[in-house]
Specification:
Shape of chain A: globular
Number of strands of chain B: 0
Structural class of chain A: mainly beta
Radius of gyration of chain A: 18 Å
Largest sheet of chain A: 8 strands, antiparallel, barrel
Largest interface: B-C, 35 and 48 residues
Number of strands of chain A: 15
Number of helices of chain B: 2
Number of domains of chain B: 1
Order of helices and strands of chain B: HH
Strand content of chain A: over 45%
Strand content of chain B: under 5%
Distance between the termini of chain A: 31 Å
Radius of gyration of chain B: 17 Å
Strand order of the largest sheet of chain A: 6-7-8-9-14-13-12-11
Oligomer: heterotrimer
Shape of chain B: elongated
Chain lengths: 206, 50, 423
């Protein structure tokens, strides 16, 4: 193994080699989430317990969709309002990372989206219109999600139990923008819907 | 099904080729009937005379 | 659980109706918004502790082969039927009814299976919007979801029945405007509701396979109509008939043409009998008893008719082989359309000689009223007949085209261009 010797600071188990390009990993052997920070590893709390559910996305199994392919390497589960959804951190064919959100067959691939206006959480109410980059979006969902469980690796530190405020904005031609607010800052991503019937995976029948 | 239809069509083509070469009623009906009856007798008038 | 995963928790299997207390299966996922009681018509909010929203009594469940709780595979995805919606639409002054079954798959989400006049279709929400917009004229092209659809029809659909778990909170009588375009076996629908417009991608399902997948015996009436997105699927017999016709038509045609060109045979003799009144005869040898011989009479009859009695005698046995007769008639003239002709100056007889050998043909002008004209007699043997092969090639061509005819008729029924009523 071309392993560079990173081990879980909690239990000492080997951590995956791919951690070098991720910022966080959930240790497969103990209950820890491990964060890589300034080349030093530290534990970041528990990784939670994730109930096994049927999914088209399985960590380590590449899936193909139209002309793209993604390899999920991290899975984070969030609870919201009435249920939960999964966010998969996946590496695409070009080695770029994408977030794929999966909620009962509603699948969106999310890529970073630059917002050109200053927003504040109180103006984002359900049904309100927001202008982003010259286009009008409507807030369709405003909720708080709580991270329930983690496994695999992630480009950012996530914490089980942490709550995230989020908003779904829908724009012209089915455009979907998701806003997240944490530590006084907005992060935005633009989602592109994926038709689950067109996903090809070794696990498609599961 | 394809095989059955192809065999039937091939047989039909063979049959039509045989009939074209050796005749199976492709002869003049009057003569054929006369020959078949063996009597040489007149078998009637066929034709469209005004 | 070394990696922090636990088996799926057993799902809530049933709830009791908050209005009437009846047990109702809870099969859908968390995104299903409403639960409609199968017994009392109570509409409950699944996202608000099954709070009673309204109640529709005495709804009649529409006909259809499926029930809530049935599972089966559609398009490779295991689905469970969680809800039923009856729909009524008035199209060109006629009411149509169909039954939508709300399907749920944990991996693929919510979709619909529709039962209409014995046809089964599947449709799912798509985010692929029309690439060409605006023109919703009949048969106008519409590009969407990577396909070229054709505009089919527009109608207003009204909800006439509700049951089970549904993805939205419905109301009996709710109306949506639907614009349908087709590219069999797929369809693309624009569904315009009060608050939003959705797009659906449809697929025609094989009825037998689908019923079997859900474990339903096919005891339902056959479809009387061609469904808008039903693909033209000819049976193996018609496909074979067309394929064989396509292959054999040229073979029969080429053989027929060959017979036509080389099948004139060998000329044995040619004689002109001048005095047919007195009668004349000619003697000719025929070498093959198995092949066809040909006699050809030609007389220069114009605006007259000439009758010939003939006798064919086998020389050796002196036996009359055949007696036959023929009239030649030919008329011509001019009228307002120009020159016209009628009849023929020649007659051809083909026959199979009973034996090889010399034959004598005697000819007399039989009828006293007949013109008395010299007649030319030509004898040939080994002639071939192309008529059987030409006839067969016409049959083969019809077989070949039969598939095209069937498809045209099928398309006419699909588009309602066949001039027949659906019933």
């Amino acid at each position: 193994m071309g392993f560079d010797g990173m081990n879980c600071p909690n239990c000492g188990a080997d951590l995956p080699e791919t951690l070098t390009r991720a910022k966080m990993v959930a240790c497969r052997y103990c209950e820890s989430a491990v964060v890589l920070e300034d080349d030093a590893l530290r534990t970041a709390g528990e990784k939670g317990v994730m109930a096994e559910e049927p999914s088209l996305f399985v960590l380590g199994r590449e899936i193909r969709y139209r002309r793209e392919s993604w390899l999920p390497v991290g899975q984070a589960r969030f609870s919201y309002g009435t249920g939960w959804w999964d966010e998969f951190w996946a590496v695409d064919g070009g080695g770029e990372g994408v977030w794929i959100s999966v909620d009962e067959g509603e699948i969106a691939v999310e890529r970073p989206y630059e917002i050109d206006v200053t927003l504040s959480p109180w103006q984002l109410k359900r049904g309100e219109n927001v202008s982003l980059n010259g286009e009008t979006f409507t807030v369709t969902e405003a909720d708080t999600a709580t991270c329930m469980a983690l496994r695999g690796e992630f480009p950012e530190a996530l914490h089980v139990g942490q709550a995230y405020r989020y908003w779904h904005l829908s724009g012209p031609m089915g455009r979907l923008v998701t806003l997240e607010f944490s530590e006084g800052e907005f992060a935005a991503s633009e989602g592109v819907w994926v038709d689950p019937y067109l996903i090809r995976s070794e696990n498609a029948g599961a | 099904m394809t095989r059955i239809v192809f065999v039937v069509f091939a047989l039909a083509t063979g049959g039509a080729t045989y009939a074209g070469l050796y005749g199976i009623g492709g002869e003049d009906a009057q003569i054929a009937k006369s020959i078949r009856s063996g009597s040489g007798g007149r078998v009637g008038y066929i034709g469209g005379v005004k | 659980m070394t990696d922090g995963f636990s088996p799926a928790p057993s799902r809530l299997a049933a709830i009791n109706c908050t209005a009437c207390g009846s047990p109702l299966p809870a099969l859908a996922g968390h995104r299903a918004r409403a639960m409609v009681c199968s017994y009392c018509g109570a509409v409950m909010d699944r996202h608000d502790a099954y709070r009673l929203l309204t109640r529709y009594r005495d709804m009649q469940r529409p006909e259809g082969p499926f029930q809530i709780g049935m599972t089966g595979e559609i398009l490779g995805v295991e689905q469970v039927i969680v809800g039923i919606v009856g729909v009524t639409a008035s199209i060109e002054h006629e009411d149509y009814h169909w039954t939508n079954y709300q399907l749920y798959s944990p991996t693929h989400g919510y979709s619909w299976m529709t039962w209409f006049d014995g046809h089964i279709t599947h449709s799912r929400k798509t985010r692929d919007m029309p690439e060409t917009g605006g023109n919703f004229a009949y048969k106008a092209p519409l590009a969407a979801a990577g396909r070229q659809f054709q505009m089919y029809e527009q109608y207003v659909a009204r909800i006439s029945y509700l049951e089970g778990e549904l993805t939205w909170v419905p109301a009996l009588g709710d109306r949506t405007q639907v614009i349908e375009a087709i590219d069999p076996p797929h369809g693309y629908s624009v569904v315009i509701g009060e608050n939003e417009t959705e797009f659906e991608f449809g697929t025609y399902l094989d009825r037998r396979e689908t019923l079997a997948a859900f474990g339903v015996a096919d005891e339902f009436p056959r479809a009387r109509t061609v469904h808008a997105i039903q693909p033209f699927l000819p049976g193996s017999f018609h496909t074979a008939l067309s394929g064989a016709g396509k292959l054999f038509a040229p073979v029969a045609l080429v053989l027929g043409l060959t017979f036509l060109v080389i099948g004139t045979g060998k000329k044995i003799t040619e004689t002109v009998i001048v005095d047919t009144d007195a009668g004349g005869s000619l003697v000719f040898p025929l070498t093959r008893a198995d092949r066809l011989a040909e006699l050809r009479l030609t007389a220069n009859v114009v605006n007259a008719w000439s009758w010939y009695d003939m006798e064919l005698i086998h020389e050796e046995s002196e036996e009359t082989v055949a007696e036959f007769d023929k009239g030649l008639e030919y008329y011509e003239g001019y009228d307002s359309d120009g020159r016209w002709t009628e009849g023929s100056q020649t007659a051809t007889f083909r026959f199979k000689p009973p034996a090889a050998g010399a034959y004598r043909l005697t000819i007399t002008t039989g009828d006293p009223k007949s013109a008395r004209l010299p007649v030319r007699v030509e004898v040939r043997e080994n002639v071939m007949l192309s008529r059987y092969l030409f006839g067969l090639s016409i049959f083969f061509i019809l077989c070949w085209l039969s598939l095209w005819f069937r498809q045209s008729r099928f398309e006419a029924r699909r588009w309602g261009d066949d001039g027949e009523d659906d019933d």
